[in-house]
Amino acid sequence: GENVGLHLPTLSVQEGDNSIINCAYSNSASDYFIWYKQESGKGPQFIIDIRSNMDKRQGQRVTVLLNKTVKHLSLQIAATQPGDSAVYFCAEKDFGNEKLTFGTGTRLTIIP
Amino acid sequence: DGGITQSPKYLFRKEGQNVTLSCEQNLNHDAMYWYRQDPGQGLRLIYYSQIVNDFQKGDIAEGYSVSREKKESFPLTVTSAQKNPTAFYLCATIRQGRDTIYFGEGSWLTVV
Q1: What is the DSSP string of B64-90?
Q2: Per-residue DSSP letters for A29-47?
Q3: B-chain residues near A104 (CB < 8 A)
Q4: A44 in contact with chain B, both atoms CB, cutoff 8 A
Q5: Pairing of strands B19-25, B76-78
Q6: Which of A101, A107, A108 to mutate to test the interface with B (most CBs of B within 10 A)?
Q7: Intervals of chain A under pLDDT 50
Q8: Tens digit of pLDDT for each residue in B43-54?
Q9: Four-residue CA torsion sign, B89, A29, A98, A22
């Protein structure tokens, strides 16, 4: 259904610290998950992805963890920088029908 | 350059009017998507299309219509039945069998 009126959860982190952003997904049939970063007024930017046959994947300063048992996804950003301030979305995809659904999102603010 | 072109960037609509947002891609991707984003909120799926001449409703299809007559084009019409159309609209594509999703720059629609 529609989520009109819900506002993004927020997370504030001191510059240089690590941050963890969490996401719960709903579809047990989803087999591919993606994290996106969105800056104000722009389209989402791909960060990192993970398939359902994995539980961890690392990129540059970012790590995605997948727990299929509880349908939970997390994004860890190491040594945060001011440029990391943005809204972060998780997305899930079901290869059975190509439907791509986004989570609510979290606004990350890096405190200098 | 290959990419996704959304137009117009900004659009003003009078109440009771239908408006059409354009999405064109030259990436030769099969799947195309339309999302709506309200200020401070996440992306909600309106419609998606896996192949030409076929499309499926997303989570908030009421008041919207689409067509997919060509692989390159997936226009979205916001009809007068959509009572609260003011939002940021994003078009996206994925190539069949691949995972990376590409987003357009988005279109801002305002009802005046």
Answers
A1: EEE--SBTTB--EEE-TT-S---EEEE
A2: T--EEEEEEE-TTS--EEE
A3: 41-42
A4: yes
A5: antiparallel
A6: A101
A7: 1-6
A8: 899 999 999 999
A9: positive
